[in-house]
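Predict structure. Chain length: 290.
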Amino acid sequence: MYPFDPVIGRFSDRKRPFLYLNFITQFSQYNDKRICFILFYNRIMILLTGKPNTGKSTCIKTLIDLLGKQRCGGFYTEEILENGQRSGFRTRTLSGRDFVFAHVDFPKEYAVEEFGVDIKTFEEIALNELNDQTKEFLIIDEIASMQLYSKRFEQLLIRLSEENRKIAAAICEIDNDFTASLKQKYRDHLHILTEKNRNGMPFVLAEELNEDDELYLSKLRLSETYARQPERFHYEGGRIILNSTHGIRTITENCYGYHCTCDYYHDNGTCSHIMAVIRNRYKDRQSFTI
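Prediction complete.
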């Protein structure tokens, strides 16, 4: 009768949650609508899939910048290149740890193609990162055959999907039984990355993860306005100077990510100014040298 699914704990009509907030509040022991909203609407798992080399990991790393790194926990995976050839994979956690997850020189007790996989270190470091309850968002790159040698990882994914967490995960295109069941369960939040849509995909995912945060969404929309007005941007001495609607803002970037001088960035690790810089990078398909 009502567009609320008590099993998955989310509104089936996710585009219009506020229409039903008053109804839920009437039957809640809480009078605070914000608390009620968190209890009933804070669970989401977004899955990003696509063919190899379409840019899933790049999309995930951009999504982290859009969400704000300090709000995110989890890990992502990068290729290791030696003499121009792929020799393995490195996993980096958002708390700053990294390790070689798979390599051609590793023992082949667990292996995918020519890569031996270090499941023990993966479970010790990466899985602990996913148990961090202090982070608003969990990032997982990726759910694939290498990671799924770990049954603990599989069990943790099942548990996390039942908690009130906001999760974005890259998932392999070719399925086994487990990945196929995840894609079926979260088919309404399954996104297929292609060469045509990959420039805009990080923004689509960021909007979906923050659909209950109107202030964040306003920043995302404002960044689109800034990105259409190149006269607002000036580049000097390794910095990007943006003439925003609230004054001059300075954006810099280093190996740890972006930094902005505005108050919203200080509290959230991202802002409309950083989002605008990212939009311009994708639009121009090139990186600024800063």
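Summary: Confidence is low (pLDDT under 50) at residues 1-41, 286-290.
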